[in-house]
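Please decode residue identities from the backbone states below.
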């Protein structure tokens, strides 16, 4: 176990030289998507999207760290920058997922807002996951093998904990979907938005599973030794989640809700045509 290796008295941060081009490409992609999300917060007045913006900022600077590491693969600064920010970015994105489900319940099912709700508990678990992952990654450059191995275990525990929480969340999304199918009018209008939640949580779950396996395999594991795995199983999945939230922005659905139900008349002709086309596929 361990993402840092000591060989011949030297510290090795990567089993390869990170790609500058890939780092800059994903830095630019995350930056663009994050800026669009900032515009969306203003347009739809969705302050609960601030966490996903923070996640996008983490991803942007994290992949800047990857590009920087392409020039300085033996420097601890770019290593720590990319490790911490890319590792914890999904925690922020998950916070928006959790709140979104709560908002859907209020609008589509007419459930009252409660002080102690599943959303609040999920946010609390998110804080725990953040603290464990950021704490474990911070000790990766201490120079103490014992402390670094302990940090690896802390990060792994945080990832496994988040996997457990996301599994529970996915069940709640499925249960909400079944209930909404029975109680909400015009199912074709809201279904794609809930599907987006389900697909997003699966994508994040897979990403976390791969990162957990990476920590178990260690520096010379298959995942750590193949940079493409980072961009396929982490960067691409998280970028896909952020783009999905743009295509099916919850604010677009929630801002049209009237009372406890969402009616087809609440949407523009273009919105109805798009959503009905998606629902028929």
């Amino acid at each position: 176990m361990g993402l840092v290796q000591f060989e011949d008295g030297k510290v090795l941060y990567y089993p390869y030289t990170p790609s500058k081009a890939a780092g800059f490409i994903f830095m630019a992609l995350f930056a663009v998507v994050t800026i669009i999300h900032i515009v969306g917060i203003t347009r739809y007045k969705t302050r609960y999207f601030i966490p996903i913006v923070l996640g996008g900022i983490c991803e942007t600077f994290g992949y800047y760290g990857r590009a920087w590491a392409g020039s300085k693969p033996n420097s601890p600064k770019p290593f720590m920058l990319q490790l911490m920010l890319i590792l914890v970015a999904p925690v922020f994105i998950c916070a928006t997922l959790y709140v979104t489900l709560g908002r859907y319940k209020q609008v589509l099912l007419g459930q009252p807002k409660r002080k102690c709700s599943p959303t609040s508990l999920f946010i609390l678990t998110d804080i725990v996951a953040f603290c464990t992952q950021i704490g474990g990654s911070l000790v990766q450059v201490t120079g103490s093998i014992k402390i670094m191995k302990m940090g690896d275990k802390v990060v792994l525990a945080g990832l496994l904990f988040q996997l457990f929480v996301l599994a529970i969340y996915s069940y709640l999304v499925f249960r909400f979907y079944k209930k909404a199918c029975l109680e909400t009018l015009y199912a074709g209008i809201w279904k794609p938005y809930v599907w987006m939640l389900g697909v997003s949580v699966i994508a994040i779950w897979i990403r976390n599973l791969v990162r957990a396996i990476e920590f178990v395999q260690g520096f010379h594991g298959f995942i750590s030794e193949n940079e493409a795995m980072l961009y396929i199983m982490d960067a691409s999945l998280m970028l896909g989640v952020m783009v999905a939230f743009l295509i099916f922005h919850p604010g677009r659905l929630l801002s049209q809700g009237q009372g406890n139900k969402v009616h087809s008349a609440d949407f523009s002709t273009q919105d109805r045509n798009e959503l009905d086309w998606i629902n028929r596929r």
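Observation: Residues 258-267, 277-281 have pLDDT under 50 and may be disordered.
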